[in-house]
């Protein structure tokens, strides 16, 4: 059952102080501290700063303590007040996938010391000179305060003979991980006889907590301060120098001599009280700043206050991480440990890939995540790309179907009296006129409209324009077969169409197919990558689709060549060809006659002028080759106009019908049958997400258990 998120005022519902602390201990027992920073007190210090002695004084437990490094891993001490002594010790592995730890039951404090030594020996045997695993000591008893502390290995600068030098940076890395946690109270332990400016732990704490809002400095070994040098320590205790919001506290725990002579923890506490009460300087200090007993009370209250302040944020973080876990688990999908699960997973992937390919080909860009992506969404709109390629193809075919013409250069052509020519009028236009006289100078004439003013060729007059048919005549002569010179031969026409025009459509046709194939291949890769397929499955999908494209591509190229070969035999039932031919034949003559009529104010024209125009357009003075060449020109223009449009439509239609549609049909079929057998899927769908899924599921359980625990008590 989904529980509501905690509101920000959750901490205002006050729990009993001890219960507040126990709540966080239970959350930590669920493993929540691996995912959410929980309020805690971490004891840190340089080697032999007296950390273990402080813990012993607070708990009554004799921690392994000597002049050398003793703590090899975080040691979490969970103390609760109870009528009888009982508890457990276990090794809590940092990696959640590790096997469950053996729990040692505790009935005496001596057993705690032995258990710590045994677990430390185990870590060393595993090759862990410094470990992220934690020794968790949970104790209830009549002499314990309600307090949870985590002791960290001491910072070291050198190692002893035979010790791993890598432990130096490992300790720093471990301590830094705790320092960085915003909900961790830093209990920085420093000896009184060491300059605070040279303390590595105080420097590290200042970097992580510049304002000192969560740093409480514990001053140990006050008996080692030289007589007369106490003033500097007093300034620290009173928080006058190196000020921190949580300030400082001083304790005097068992030193090495006391340990060697067997002084008990209880006797050490009494010695501490007597020492502070009798010392000339320390007895003048506020009692709340001195002694183990006051430190225990201070830490218990500080931890509880920190927990109460942090609970709303912890609860909000729980909600956020629960949502994230569920989302990530959904992305990983169901486990692939059965044929049914593998078939279901493969079907989902295949459906995603083919659906996106199909939409891209149809131009139905409804999948916003695939087609409206800012980076590649537009590039996935395949139909739009294909239309652009088809437009380029159509333009290329049209360019290669254009029969170019030019006007003949008649500068060297002679003129005779009685010939009709064009004369430039006063407004700059050209009008039809008849030559009446020739000058001795070449190319100067008089005309009917200009009987006295000699006209100069090109400037004042020109021959009637006629087509330059040299190129078309050359083609006609080169492609003639067995024919009569009276009419245009189909064989000649077909040869010219095939050799000069249709053959040039081959390159743009295959270029269009290449653009289709390349774009489809790119889109295929993106569609596969956008699915949940990875590794072997992704490679398999790519291989199946690529092989299919290659197979269809070979057949497609043959089909295209066949389509081009059909165009090599000119044929059409389209009447636009005949209409175009007749239009080419008649329109120039009709236009010339209309222009002749427009030159007359009363609409009457000279029969001679009409005769000249008709003779020009009927080419009565030209050879049969000229006549055939002109008809061939008009026939080519009329036919190629129709054939080019037909070909420009036919090739994209063939690519759609013989390449794209079969590709999608066969791909869907193969991904549902031959490429989706249980044997293939078992090989492809090995659950590479099993570990991640297990870890996420464990994390989700811890988060949901923690959330339920908070709601149960708040």
Description:
Residues 35-312 form the Dynamin-type G domain. It holds the Pfam family Dynamin_N. Keywords: GTP-binding, Nucleotide-binding. With 714 residues, the protein is an alpha/beta fold. 52% of the residues lie in helices and 11% in strands. A 9-stranded mixed β-sheet has the order 4-3-5-2-6-1-7-8-9, with helices on both faces. Strand 10 (420-424) and strand 11 form a beta hairpin.
Draw up the topology in text.
Blueprint: H1 17-29, E1 40-45, H2 51-59, E2 75-81, E3 86-92, E4 104-106, H3 109-125, E5 134-141, E6 147-151, H4 167-179, E7 184-191, H5 200-208, E8 215-220, H6 230-237, E9 248-250, H7 256-260, H8 265-278, H9 292-332, H10 339-362, H11 368-371, H12 382-399, E10 420-424, E11 430-438, E12 444-447, E13 455-456, E14 461-463, H13 470-478, H14 490-501, H15 506-530, H16 535-567, H17 576-598, H18 607-618, H19 624-672, H20 678-684, H21 690-713
Parallel strand pairs: 1-6, 1-7, 2-5, 7-8, 8-9
Antiparallel strand pairs: 2-6, 3-4, 3-5, 10-11, 10-14, 11-12, 12-13
Helix pairs in contact: 1-9, 9-21, 10-15, 10-19, 12-15, 12-19, 13-19, 15-16, 16-19, 17-18, 17-19
Protein name: Dynamin-type G domain-containing protein
Domain Dynamin-type G: 35-312
GO molecular function: GTP binding; GTPase activity; microtubule binding
Provide tags for this entry.
714 residues, alpha/beta, Rossmann fold, Four Helix Bundle (Hemerythrin (Met), subunit A), five-stranded antiparallel sheet, 14 strands, 52% helix, 11% strand
Give a brief outline of the structure.
InterPro entries: Dynamin, Dynamin_GTPase, Dynamin_N, Dynamin_stalk, G_DYNAMIN_dom, GED_dom, P-loop_NTPase. With 714 residues, the protein is of the alpha/beta class.
